[in-house]
Amino acid sequence: MLLSELGNIINYKKIINFSKNKEFNRISSSSKEVNQQTIFFISNKKKIKKEYLLEVLNKKTPAIISSKIYSNLSIPQFIVEDTDQEVNKILKKLKPKKPLNTIAITGTNGKTSVAWYIAQICKVNNIKNKMQGTLGFYINNKKFKNESLTTPPYENLYQNAFTKKNNKYNFIFEASSHALKQDRIKNFPVNIAAITNISHDHLDYHKSIINYKNAKFKLFIKYLNSQGLAVINSRL
């Protein structure tokens, strides 16, 4: 997609430093993942450090999308009211086709093993699959990249699962309690959800076992499709 096409997709307040049209095929909120074909965006809720902006500049990202102007930057900037809302429009344009099925697994222990077993079962049965989790991002059981988080930022989750054309893949991913609590999954479609177990863990973050359980249960209450399938451990 060309930068010039953004004007027809997003609602922008202002565009600055736009002199040369460039192509991009991905969008990211992480300066570590930016390259010459990845647009960098800054969420309204996030304060960006100068060192991250410098990293983005050095990697020659085609443009920045943010809710404020960053002075002394020669890079094209698209200024919008709500960054997350506009980014979602771009994601849908870049990759409109959702997976055949999306399987989300949560639990204190066993998420990684269960996700891997499902991917292996798919492989044995010649079912195309993508897997996202602690082990990284895999396509048909072949590793494509590492991830720093069990459940990556929404834009990574979306771009790894969705495709530009016909999507023939089943998408399997681990849903951590941190990601569920932080609403990192947002409106990502889930039609099969499973929970392995719940034990006392991550209470330094969740503060209480009730908060921890409620974060896990959000996968079923908030994110699972109303017609979806829930898989519950009988010993939970």
Characterize the structure shown.
- The structure is a single chain.
- The protein has 236 residues and is an alpha/beta fold.
- The protein has seven helices and twelve strands.
- It has helices at residues 50-58, 83-94, 111-124, 154-161, 177-181, 203-206, 209-223, and strands at residues 12-16, 26-28, 38-41, 64-66, 77-80, 101-106, 129-133, 136-139, 142-145, 170-174, 190-195, 224-232.
- A seven-stranded mixed beta sheet has the order 9-8-7-10-6-11-12, sandwiched between helices. A five-stranded mixed beta sheet has the order 1-5-4-3-2.
- The N and C termini lie far apart (47 Å).
- The mean pLDDT is 92.
Topology:
Layout lengths: L11 E5 L9 E3 L9 E4 L8 H9 L5 E3 L10 E4 L2 H12 L6 E6 L4 H14 L4 E5 L2 E4 L2 E4 L8 H8 L8 E5 L2 H5 L8 E6 L7 H4 L2 H15 E9 L4
Parallel strand pairs: 2-3, 3-4, 4-5, 6-10, 6-11, 7-10, 11-12
Antiparallel strand pairs: 1-5, 7-8, 8-9
Mean pLDDT: 92
What percent of residues adopt helix (DSSP H or I)? 25-40%
Could you spell the SSE succession in H and E letters? EEEHEEHEHEEEHEHEHHE
Query: Largest beta sheet: what is the strand line-up?
Result: 9-8-7-10-6-11-12
Largest sheet: 7 strands, mixed
The number of E-state strands comes to: 12
How many separate helices? Answer: 7
**General shape:** globular
Cα-atom radius of gyration: 19 Å
Work out the strand percent: 15-25%
- Give the class from helix and strand content and strand pairing: alpha/beta
Cα distance, first to last residue? 47 Å
Q: List unreliable stretches of 5+ residues.
A: none
